[in-house]
Backbone:
């Protein structure tokens, strides 16, 4: 039996034209219950107009991130008992992004910045050539591997106070993506990556507050990736080679 | 929604910023008082008698604290950003610096 019968859940609701307003629901408590289960219960049993987003429910798709008691989290893998404050919980849309409606944040700025950070592959070979072998134990490859499990959930972007204070800042996820590509032996244009991340709002805007690394649900380390970009851009500036 | 931030790296950032602000506010005053050494030695001596007050002594302690915190915060940031170390390496390095600082300060205090 759970320790309690009901949870008191406050959901911040609103949209582009209406400021966020708290609405409180009483939700049945269960032994095993994720934050996403709670939000789904509200939508299915209390108020069908509640808007939120999810897809895979197993921590792979990066769709369901929300603010839970002031911390951005992947709600499908966040157990209620780990985050409950007494018997209450506050759920809101991700910070640092426009709100489409209720708990659904507009991810466009987040993905636009992936593109702006040159977060795309620059091929070294065409499809007609043989695939280049990659040494899995090379130091460079290890650095790239450290960041490739990103699921684009925007938790780091939402946790970052530099993003909150500087709308031009590319953010931890986009910069980490740039760092993985920079360390990819199959990437043909590393200068383009450094150009993209060294300007206004680039890696040097980071204040190393570390919220990205502290809250990444996949336990990745964007802080160290951004530090890598700072070193790489500085080396290039002083004429050094990687 | 109130944003929760109280993890060690963020607190270290905050401490570094606040100590920096404190030092930035102190330095103009410091140089202004020092300028009396060149222009008006008697006025400087009169001012320096203030340092006998317990409150000023306490403030001096605060100043040294700010300086120490800001100095080590800067070293932390340089290590964090410029040394591609793993997290355990950074932990050991920080522990070594803290340990050596403790030992050397103990010797220094004995010498005084």
Residues:
């Amino acid at each position: 039996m759970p320790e309690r019968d009901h949870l008191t859940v406050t959901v911040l609701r609103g949209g582009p034209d209406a400021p966020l307003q708290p609405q409180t629901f009483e939700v049945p408590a269960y032994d095993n219950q994720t934050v996403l289960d709670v939000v789904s219960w509200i939508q299915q049993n209390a108020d069908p107009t509640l808007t939120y987003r999810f897809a895979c429910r197993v921590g792979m798709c990066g769709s369901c991130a929300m603010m839970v008691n002031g911390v951005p989290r992947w709600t499908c893998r966040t157990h209620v008992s780990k985050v409950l404050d007494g018997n209450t919980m506050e759920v809101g849309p991700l910070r640092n992004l426009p709100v489409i409606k209720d708990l659904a944040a507009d991810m466009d700025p987040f993905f636009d910045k992936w593109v702006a950070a040159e977060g795309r592959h620059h091929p070294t070979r065409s499809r007609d050539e043989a695939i280049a072998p990659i040494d899995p134990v090379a130091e460079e490859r290890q650095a790239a591997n450290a960041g490739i499990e990103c699921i684009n959930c925007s938790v780091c972007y939402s946790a970052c106070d530099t993003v909150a204070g500087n709308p031009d800042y590319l953010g931890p996820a986009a910069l980490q993506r740039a760092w993985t590509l920079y360390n990819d032996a199959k990437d043909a244009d590393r200068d383009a990556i450094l150009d993209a991340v060294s300007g206004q709002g680039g890696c040097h805007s980071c204040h190393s507050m570390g919220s990205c690394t502290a809250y990444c649900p996949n336990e990745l380390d964007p802080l160290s990736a951004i530090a890598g970009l700072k070193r790489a851009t500085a080396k290039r500036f002083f004429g050094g080679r990687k | 929604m109130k944003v929760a931030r109280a993890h060690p790296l963020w607190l270290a950032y905050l401490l570094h910023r606040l100590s920096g602000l404190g030092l930035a506010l102190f330095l103009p005053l410091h140089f202004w008082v020092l300028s009396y050494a060149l222009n008006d030695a008697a006025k400087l001596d009169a001012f320096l008698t203030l340092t006998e007050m317990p409150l000023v002594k306490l403030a001096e302690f605060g100043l040294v604290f700010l300086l120490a915190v800001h100095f080590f915060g800067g070293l932390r940031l340089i290590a964090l950003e410029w040394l591609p170390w793993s997290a355990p390496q950074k932990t050991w390095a920080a522990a070594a610096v803290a340990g050596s600082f403790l030992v050397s300060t103990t010797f220094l205090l004995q010498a005084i």
